[in-house]
Every structure is written in structure tokens, then in C-alpha cells.
Write a structure and sequence with these properties.
By secondary structure, the chain is mainly α. The chain has a single domain (2-91), classed as Butyryl-CoA Dehydrogenase, subunit A, domain 3 (Up-down Bundle). 73% of the residues lie in helices and 0% in strands. The chain has helices at residues 2-20, 26-50, 62-75, 79-91. Helix 2 (26-50) packs antiparallel against helix 4 (79-91). The chain is elongated, with a radius of gyration of 16 Å.
Length: 97
């Protein structure tokens, strides 16, 4: 879990550096959102599994984090939408107009 979270933080840090240098592109933001939301959803699931049946109680927070991540997944654009944006950037071929 720590490795995946650190990788996500490094990606976010790199985006901040690009933004500060006025070199940030929307496709890079899509890549980061796609990666980091997917990673965070997976890590919340792992945390819930690690706690066993306690992972679904209100005493622990994995279920709350999982619900929050589902919200972020929806309002920030789904994995599939960001994949289409990245595909267009990489190939120059738009999947939609």
C-alpha cells in the first residue's frame, strides 16, 4: 500500500512542477486522475479486506474512504473517459467528437 500511495504522490508532485512551469497539459491531468483514483480505490479495498469483518463497521474508516473514492471516480471522470483522452493524445485519433 505504501508503495502505491507514494507513486501516486510522486505523480501529483510532478504535475505541480509542470503547472508551476506553465507546461501542464490536460492529458497529463487525465493520466494522473486515471491512475490515482484507480490506485486509491484499490487501496481502500485492500484496507477493508485487511480488517476482515471489522472493515465494514463504522468503527473503522475503509468503507467511508471507499464511498468517497466512488464519488471521486464519478465526478472527476471515469477511468474509461480518461483512457479515451489518453488514447487520443498518444495516437492522434479521437474516439469521439
Amino acid at each position: 500500500m505504501a508503495t502505491q500511495i507514494t507513486l501516486g504522490q510522486l505523480l501529483a508532485n510532478r504535475l505541480a512542477e509542470l503547472k508551476q512551469a506553465n507546461e501542464l497539459r490536460p492529458e497529463q491531468v487525465s493520466m494522473a486522475k486515471r491512475n490515482n483514483v484507480r490506485m486509491a480505490r484499490n487501496q481502500a479495498r485492500i484496507a477493508r479486506e485487511m480488517l476482515g469483518s471489522n472493515g465494514i463497521t463504522l468503527e473503522h474508516s475503509p468503507m467511508r474512504h471507499m464511498a468517497n473514492m466512488e464519488t471521486v471516480y464519478t465526478y472527476e471522470g471515469t477511468h474509461d473517459i480518461h483512457s479515451l483522452i489518453l488514447g487520443n493524445d498518444l495516437t492522434g485519433i479521437a474516439a469521439f467528437k
